[in-house]
Amino acid sequence: MSYFFQPASCPTLPIRGSDQLFPVRRVYCVGRNYAAHAVEMGHDPNREPPFFFQKNPDNLVSDGVFPYPPASHDVHHEVEMIVALGRGGMDIPQEQALDHVFGYGIGLDMTRRDLQAEAKKLGRPWEIAKAFEGSAPAGALVPATEIGHPQGGAIWLKVNGETRQEGNLDQMIWKVSETISYLSGLFRLAAGDVIMTGTPAGVGAVERGDVMQAHVDGIGDLEVKVV
Predict the structure, then answer these.
(1) Where is the Fumarylacetoacetase-like C-terminal domain (predicted)?
(2) Cβ distance 57 to 135 under 8 Å?
(3) pTM, whole model, 2 decimals?
(4) How do 162-168 and 136-137 pair as beta strands?
C-alpha cells in the first residue's frame, strides 16, 4: 500500500527532561472554565454545563514564536494549563480520571476575537477564530510522575512585562478530573489527546513584536514572541 502523497508528520510536544516526544492525537479546549473570564465574556458561569471546541493537532507549536494570522485585526491571548493524556477510554469515572493523565504543560489559546464575535453573532462554529495555523503555542510537557496533579497554584500571563491575566488553578469551574470524565462521555478519548483547560480573566489583544510570558505554578514558564 502506498500513499498518493507523503502524509504529514505527526504533531508532537516536547517532554521536559527527555529526548522523547509526545505524539498529539486531538486537541480539546474547554470554553469559559474560569468564572471571571466567563463574566468578562458576558456569560453567567453558574448556569452553564461545560462545553468544548477543538483545535487541530498541528496548531500546537513549541518554537517560541506566534505568527500573527491573516484576516484579523484583534488577536487575543488566553493562557491555559494543558493536560496530556497517556491513555483514554469512554465514560471514565471521575475518581479514576487522573490515572489517565501523562502530564501537564502551558499553552496559549490564541484567538481571532473579531472573527469569533462575528461567528457568535451568526450562530456559526468557531474554527476560523480558534483553529488557525500556530494558534496554540505550547511549552514542554512535565510528567505527572514528577509533579503530581496540580489542584491549585498561580496561572498568569504578561505582555511586554505587563501583567494581563492572573488567576489560580483552583478557580476552574470544572476541575481536571471532572473535565476528563465529562469529555469521555462525548468522545472516545485516547493516548495523545490534549486538553486545554480554560483561561482566567484578562484576555486581550497582542501586536507584532509583543513578547508574551506565561506561567503556571508547578509546571514552569513559557515565552512566545508575536511576529
Answers:
(1) 27-227
(2) no
(3) 0.95
(4) unpaired
State how far the Cα of 205 lies from the Cα of 195, in Å rounded to an integer.
23
Residue 167: φ, ψ to 5°: -165, -170
pLDDT band at 42 (very low <50, low <70, confident <90, very high): low
Closest CA to 32 of 148, 142, 121, 116: 116
Query: Which top CATH class is 14-226?
Result: alpha beta
- Domain ranges (residues) in the chain: 14-226
DSSP string, the chain: ---SSPPPPPPEEEBTT-S-EEE---EEEESS-BHHHHHHTT--GGG----EEEE-GGGEE-SSEEPPPSS-S-EEE-EEEEEEESS-BSS--GGGGGGGEEEEEEEE--EEHHHHHHHHHHT--SHHHHSSTT-EEB--BEEHHHH----S-EEEEEETTEEEEEEEGGGBSS-HHHHHHHHTTTS-B-TT-EEE----S--EE--TT-EEEEEETTTEEEEEEE-
Closest by alpha carbon to 153, among 109, 202, 197? Answer: 197
Which of 97, 95, 81, 69 is CA-nearest to residue 189? 97
Question: Whose grid coordinates read 517532554?
Answer: 15
21 close to 60: Cβ distance less than 8 angstroms? no
